[in-house]
Amino acid sequence: MAAWHRSRRADIVLRATGLLLCWVSYTAIARLVAMHVPPLKAGVLAYGIAAVGFMAASAGTALTILGHHLFDEVEVSARWRGRPDLNVSTPSEGIIEMDIPEPAMLVVGRDIDGDWTVRESAGMLLGRFSSARAAQRFAEAERHGRTSVSVATSAGIPRRIEGRLSLICDRPLKGSVARG
Q1: Which of 28, 38, 80, 107 could pair with 53 as two cysteines, CB 3.0-4.6 Å apart?
Q2: Which strands, in side-by-side order, build the sheet including 105-110?
Q3: CA-CA distance, 115 to 32, in Å (whole number)?
């Protein structure tokens, strides 16, 4: 297919279209300002006019400034092209796969509230359960087929701090009136 946008004529048409869109944006925003819409009372019409103004200004500015250069190819840095040490498929396939290390251990234990939890060795919570058996079954199901992952049980319940936090102050603060 021929590069129609590379001609001088196409460049002028693209830039003229950009100027037309800038004029449409100006007209839309001027109409919106003339409506005197209170901020909390804006309706669908006000939002629609604002959207037209924003989109026309964005596209118009890009077309006016860039013209036919809008379609130029850009060289992508090697950093973003993909590295061979990562298992990344091409974006055209629609799926990006990365080598994410799987956890070495799943830990079944109790949290402060007494619920049974399953955590990765890195500490990320995978699930919260009402019984130890349910937590153990979940951990085994997560481990299924992965021999490199082991399941362990933590020792005990973390202690809860007893008592109440009191914000009562015995002496008055600076600048405040003492109650008596």
Answers
A1: 28
A2: 125-129, 116-120, 105-110, 150-153
A3: 56
What is d(CA 7, CA 160) in angstroms, rounded to the nearest whole number?
Answer: 75
Q: How far is CA 47 from the centre of its chain?
A: 24
Task: Find the angle CA(155)-CA(157)-CA(163) to the nearest 5 degrees.
Answer: 150
- Provide the token pair at 176: 């405040």
* Separation of alpha carbons 155 and 143, rounded Å: 21
Using DSSP, state whether 108 is helix, strand or coil: strand
Any idea which residue has 């992952």 for tokens?
149
Q: What does residue 61 show for φ and ψ, rounded to 5 degrees?
A: -65, -45
pLDDT in tens, 47-105: 999 999 999 999 999 999 998 888 888 887 777 776 555 554 555 555 555 555 666 77
Please tell me the distance from the alpha carbon of residue 133 to that of residue 107, in angstroms, as a whole number.
Answer: 13
Among 116, 119, 124, residue whose Cα is nearest residue 107: 119
- Which of 129-138, 142-151, 152-161 shows the lowest mean pLDDT across its residues? 152-161
